[in-house]
Structures
1.
Amino acid sequence: MAQYQITVDSKLLRQLFLGNSQDAGVAALLESVLNQVLQAQASEQLAAEPYERREDRQGYRNGTYPHQLTTRVGTITLRVPRIRNGKFSTELFARYQRSEQALVLALMEMVVNGVSTRKVTQITEKLCGTEFSKSTVSELCKRLDPVVNAWNNRSLRDSRYPFVIVDALVLKVREEGRVRARGVMLAYGVNTDGHREILGLMLGDSESEASWSEFFAWLKSRDLRGVDLIVSDHHGGLVRAVRNHFQGVTWQRCQTHFMRNILDATPKALQEELYPRVRAILDAPDMDTARLLLEQVLESYESKAAKAMRILEAGFEDATAVLMLPERYRKRLRTTNGMERLNEEIRRRERVIRIFPNRESVVRLIGALLIEIDEKWASGRKYLDMNEYLAWQQTQVPEKKASKVTHIR
């Protein structure tokens, strides 16, 4: 990724920290930074700085033209470079604006459907201009929806995904004049190259087994393959759907949720004492050690925290399934913490909307944001080095593997 040297003058900083409008200061800072990035990209493409004389330069500047970019802190003006006898190219605002545009569209739909607050109307008019209509919203949706839908329904055949993490969010959606709770099911996978990839999202009526079954069937119809381990919380409908659609695949119960379930059932006076004992079980170097520590904890606390011990014993096999893998993969695959961080990024946008105007706006806003995150993951560092896993997998003959896999209960 290119590194750019950015300068900020004292006047702009004064406006940012001491000005009457904080948003105006942030907008001015953002505008200054992005314009400097555009100029740096032009220098990269031309292989020369402004007015620099070089024999190997690739062309010449020909001024700039203004480009309006709508953001959550206001509309800023970018000065896009022109190149003589050529074309300047940048993905700076093209990629950035997808999720911003989806956010604005959701606000606009709230207004045109007559359900927005006065504050939302003011924000939307500030971002989009003083007037807009249903036809304006429709035209903007036509530009964005095909991009999001094509990405969300793309084929997954080109990769194998040994590790898949799934979770759901509950959002409020206005349907037929009523506000209803709807579940957004999400999944990301780690492919054999070691990169994370968002597999898709689907809006369901609830987090029921039927909704999860539909979600998994949809992923499989897009050629999701090579799954060896699925990580999720202990939602009953989800687990049953995994068992039906991925028979023989190992299910890892999220250890964070598991620990929370145990402590919630533990008397408060014992929680601080019990936590490190259970943590030692989950962090055991191998299954034999984990079983030994389990027996010791059960013996020590079965009379003092009977309910917690029943939860621990019943969930032990599922919560320690990750111990079958080489040690380097266990930390990142024993919880859904990575998915929780992804969910928080979605919540930051969802809190602005609060109640989505329709189902389409949910897929549009969340999908546009996930596209940008997915592109960032694909171009960044590998999430896991898969070489050791792939070598280990080759050693797992069917008989041996069957003895190690913790099947879904």
2.
Amino acid sequence: MLEIMMRLAVTLCILAVVYTLPLSTALYIKRSPDQNTVCSRSTPCGWGVYDVHSRLVQFYMKGPCYCPNGTRCVRTTDALLIYSFVYHCRPLSRPAEHVWPEYEE
């Protein structure tokens, strides 16, 4: 249990640092002050934090934005340093094996 809590703390710290650094390639569309932001192609829509030994997802962390119409949040990369799969918005027409839980059919 302590190992999971430490991994969660490290993951959250890394994510906090990543989102406080200026990213020249990460663009987003700001809708209005009272609505969320739409994820760009390079902004993660979520992370699946997994067990380091089994690589089974223990829990999901939603990103700071949401996928626009015609897209869904799918697994795109593996962030080995933070024991997480990274999810990005991709077109519905593109086949996807690992889809964010709320987008599963």
3.
Amino acid sequence: MIRNYFTIAVRNLLRNKLGTAINILGLTIGITSFILIFLFVNNERSYDSFHQNKNDKYRVNIEQDFASGDSRVVGLTSESTATWLSEEFPEVKQVIKIRPFFNPMVISNGDNFFKDNNLLFAEKHFFDFFNFELIRGNAEKALEAPASVVITDELAKKLFGDDEPIGKTVQLSGSFDLDLKVTGIVKKTSQSHIDLNAVVSWNTAHPQAGPIARWFSYSLYSYLQLHDNTDPIQFVKKINENAALKWPDDASNSTYTLQSLDEIYLTSNEVQFIENFKIGNAQNLRMLSILAFFVLIIACVNYVNINTAKSTKRSKEVGLRKTLGAVKTQLIFQFMGEAFLLVFVASLLALLMLDIVVPFFNQLTGKPITFNVDVVFSILPTCGLILVAVTLLSGLYPAFILSAFQPSEVLKTISRNKLTGTFSRQVLITFQFVISISLIAGTFLVLEQINFLQKKELGFNKDQVIVLDLDNSENLSRNFKTFQQLIGSHANVLQTSVSEDALGYGYTNNSGHVIPEGGNNEKVLTTWFGVDMDFIETYDIEVVKGRSFSRNMASDSSAIIVNEAFVRAAGWEDPIQKTIRFSQDWAPVPVIGVVKDFHFQALYQKVNPILMRIAPYNFWKMSIKISGNDVAGTLKFIKEKWQEYEPNYPFEYSFVDQKFAKFYDSEQRLLKAVTVFSIISVIIACLGLYGLTSFTIEQRTKEIGIRKVLGASASHILLILNKRTAVLLLLAFLIALPITYLSTDSWLQNFAYRIEIDLWVFLVSGILTILITLLTVSYQVFRATSIDPASTLKYE
């Protein structure tokens, strides 16, 4: 019996070559797209999944409220906070402090060196709290001794080749020089939000500067593990109540929150000062998952439409089988078997396609997703579920429709022609159009938002400004004034500035509450910029009140310039010569100017209060504004001067505009993905419509011939046959409009600055879908009208 069903299924699929080819192609593309996104989503969700007891481990964040009513979440805490959590709360099993170093450092072994952007300082129980795989060394003692370091296997290979690194000494250079003893090798992993290359013991001290961890006293990351059965919600409530009693001055505008270890990677978009950690985007992941589901559904809809359209051809077969004694369940089994066979073939082709398209998909997403035999075996259960689900989605409805035909009706030609009801197909076609229009409109809106982000006026000049990291070089840090003068002597160098922080990095090294006087007398949470006298002019920041810093005014070394957001938060009407205090114990500092609000962070956040002061030391960044003439020659000159002062440290630079563009890498990748899958969805929908139109025209071949004999023009016949499709497209447009508006508006809520959703986006999307669809249908109709009526009137 099974063999008979299989033979008949193969014969039917081969007999209807066009429908079979369209179904297999559509399902193959749909299943391939679904598995690709499944692999990507699975990869993103697997971050930090290897840590034991990950559901009981959290990062401690602080939510801070601004006087303006805005708020922010920061990932940094202080050493006193970590100690307080460890000592005063019995619910806490353990606390660990970690801190990536401020700036890139160079780790070297003789002539082999590596520039490390992910140098991490951590307490000795780091490998107990985080379960990174330690290949060699003792997890409990590897970070116990001062000046000890654990490096990744990749870094060990670069520094030592095939030699044994344990017990050897590596040199750390950059902001300071230090010798470190290698005490362990950890396996490099890309699946953690902590992107480490080297972990240095927390109690390491510099020979002259003392304990390095002292530099992190007010800016480190605290992670804690709660005891089993501890309710994190109640625990957060408890620590905030305790904090209100311990630090009453800060409790009104600072709240502690916990972020689960297994959620940190995907839920950190709104957390600030975590630039050294990897972050994903949970909302973009959800959008891609919905895209994958829609593409697969469109392919299933094609199968349903084409198979129900072929019902008149199969109806006589059904009638004969029922007359000969076949029952409905047997017929359903046969038709479901045909669907299973077709989906099985499409699934095999999809697995073959994956090997080809994965490299291109990796370029699209920026993720190194692998596809090999091991991956195939790992996703076989998922492929099995897809096979069953797609078989049911695509085959169940046609199977019930075809098996329900009655022999007394289907064996009559006239009655059989009445069995071609199209209501269900019209609903499904409309559904396809809704998805296609929504995806196309979504693509336009994402593109418009990204263009808005990249072109929005930031309040300063980001073009043709180069930033150098001086803190990477001890020589340049000591001699930056002479180096700055040499750079400024070049004709194409318009302005230079040294500062604690440069624009384009998205963060500063200092922030806190200050006390404005003469306003509303409330503390203002403020971001501090340590700058020199030329910072404002180098970035062309507009001074709207008062004046900029001046070398001719000695008092400016202890003066402040604030932004408009600070003035609003302080409640000042006239800010000039108002004063602020950094604490009650500090002397008041005068405000000499107000600059226009400018964005130094990505446009996810609003402009918050900012103050600029002349930094007495810690000039870590040099900003160089150059002309557009001979940029390559100017960079060559700067490099030559760099190498004169620092021959041992590689010359590296960044353009501020490129730094800002990187803020939106995830949105750029989302745009590419949405665009690709929008095109795929339209192609699959058009494939189905092409096949469906072919069967419809086949059924109406004689009608077309008669109309031509009676004098109907090809355009008139085209209008008649396209009329129903046009109505469905209009209905789909009306349904897609609110769906797309609500979904894109939800995505745009992530941005403090965003576009307004315009009607033209939906109109263009609808018109584009209509044109593509009507061209697909019209091609088939035009072919039918080109046939000689003498031939078509003989058609049966």
4.
Amino acid sequence: MTSEVSPILDLFSLTLEVNHLQKACDFYQQVVGLKVQALDEKQGTCTLEFSSGQQLHLWMPITRQVPSERLSQLGARGGSHVHWAMQIPKGTLQQAREHLGQHGIPWQEIDLASGDQPADLGLYFWDPAFHGLELREVDVQDERFPVVPPGQAAETGLPVVGLREVALAFQDYAAMKQRLPEAYGFAFLKEMEDRNFAQFTLGPWPERDGLFTPRRWLYAWDPQVGLADMLGGEHATVTFLADVDAVEKRVRQSGLSHFRDEQGLVVCDPEGHVFEFVPFEFMQD
């Protein structure tokens, strides 16, 4: 670990690639309980919002067109088979189990706690495009608040209050471990002994996961089958809240392909992921 302060503040949005736009949009609206902010069937895009203000974008690839002219400059795509997690308030796991059961959605439960921690269950299931979803309970009164606090659970759908984590695959695992902290400033937390699996805290410094913390995370591993048979995402597009000037300085020094405009900084990672960095004020626009 390093004592250097990370310029990464929080997780803002994730973009998923889907093969049936309306089916995926309905799933996230009716089953998960997100609010549809924009739906463009001709363009093949849907934007949904969490109560925290974070967003989920769905892109359906359509020949001879791109879902985002701006992000297409660096070949942005929606992620394939992305494993990602959402926050639910502590004490609502049974409610989530029952809700998924009512919709006929099978789920798997795994205790993710370390040996010295109380049980910390993850609830895993799939969306219609075979992205791997996870629910984790968080203590909404925890003092380790992220920049974007959890929202309020909706009256319908799952008791989701925000994004929690994104898991991405990297073919060159060793290069990734060096690049993510150096080229972007992600705060490295830990690595597993028996797997090529690294965890980065999306905040100013590395913090321990578990114990129902509302902090958010970026997981990075080599192409492998993870928990609940889920894979890390490929060619994912992810947006982070950040000190954009500080990230841009690192990116310039690294020589990575990028551009910056009035919206933020967009970088093409060598593994094909596209990372966007925007200021906190972006959420208030």
